[in-house]
Amino acid sequence: MLRRATKLADLRHKADGKRYYVLPDFNGDLRVLNSKEIDALKRAKVMDKQVSFYYLINESLYHTK
After folding, report:
1. 0.70 exceeded by the pTM?
2. Spans of all domains in the chain
3. pLDDT tens digits, residue range 8-57?
4. Half-sphere exposure of residue 58, counting CA atoms within 13 Å on the CB side?
5. Strand order of the sheet with strand 30-34?
6. What angle do CA 60, 6, 30 make, to 5 degrees?
7. What's the rounded Cα separation, in Å, for the pair 42 and 23?
8. CA 39, CA 47: separation in Å to the nearest integer?
């Protein structure tokens, strides 16, 4: 599952050049998100507003360059 998520993150990064994070979901799945999608989750109050991108880099299972 992690291998598939990292491959998806690399493909999406190659397509648009943005940084993608592989994060565990509360259902036990892995989600591949970029900063715009993370901001949308913060606005929808799914993710805490105090989560910083520094925290995401440290806590993500994988992130692109």
Report:
1. yes
2. 2-63
3. 999 999 999 999 999 998 888 999 999 999 999 999 998 899 989 898 88
4. 5
5. 30-34, 20-24, 62-63
6. 60
7. 15
8. 9
State the alpha helices, DSSP H only, in 17-48. 35-43
Angle at the Cα of 59 (from 22 to 18), degrees rounded to 5?
45
- Positive/negative CA dihedral, 47, 57, 39, 7: negative
Q: Which amino acid is at 33?
A: L
Tokens of 14: 């190659």
Written as six digits, the tokens of 2 are 């992690």
